[in-house]
Amino acid sequence: MLLSVHIKREGESPVVSPLSSEDAHHSDRYQTFLRVRANRQTRLNARIGKMKRRKPEDGGQVCPLCSAPLAGSEEEMSRHVEQCLIQTLTSPLFTPTLLYISLDTSQ
């Protein structure tokens, strides 16, 4: 005979009840569902937090590669982006098949 212990909620005492094998299967599936849902919510909340941190507070420019806020003259901002690009291209994690850059500005 299988026993189930329900999680104690505020004002309730734990309840122990016998479960059939079918009920145990559904309970296991439900527990898995709850765990997957909690993990998904954690991932989504982390992603939302990252997106909020990326947005500039003052509406200024950000580096398209590292998302750092850019300040200074156009030349200084361009220099920062170029340095980030060089770092990206020389990184051991760089995958050349994923990058397509068109340097032709006549289009």
Blueprint of the fold:
Layout: E1 2-5, E2 16-19, H1 21-54, H2 74-90
Biggest sheet overview: 2 strands, antiparallel
| Low-pLDDT segments, ≥5 res | none
Cα shape: elongated
Neighbour order of strands in the largest sheet: 1-2
Number of helices: 2
Series of secondary-structure elements, N-terminal to C-terminal: EEHH
How many E strands? 2
| Rg on CA atoms, Å | 26 Å
The helix content is 40-55%
Overview of the structural elements:
By secondary structure, the protein is mainly alpha-helical. Among the domains are: 18-54; 58-93, no CATH class. Helices cover 48% and strands 7% of the residues. It has 2 helices and 2 strands. The protein has helices spanning 21-54, 74-90; strands at residues 2-5, 16-19. A two-stranded antiparallel ribbon has the order 1-2. The longest helix is centred in the middle third of the chain and has 34 residues, at 21-54. The protein is elongated, with a radius of gyration of 26 Å. The termini are far apart. The mean pLDDT is 74. InterPro entries: E3_ubiq-ligase_RNF220-like, RNF220_mid. This is E3 ubiquitin-protein ligase RNF220.
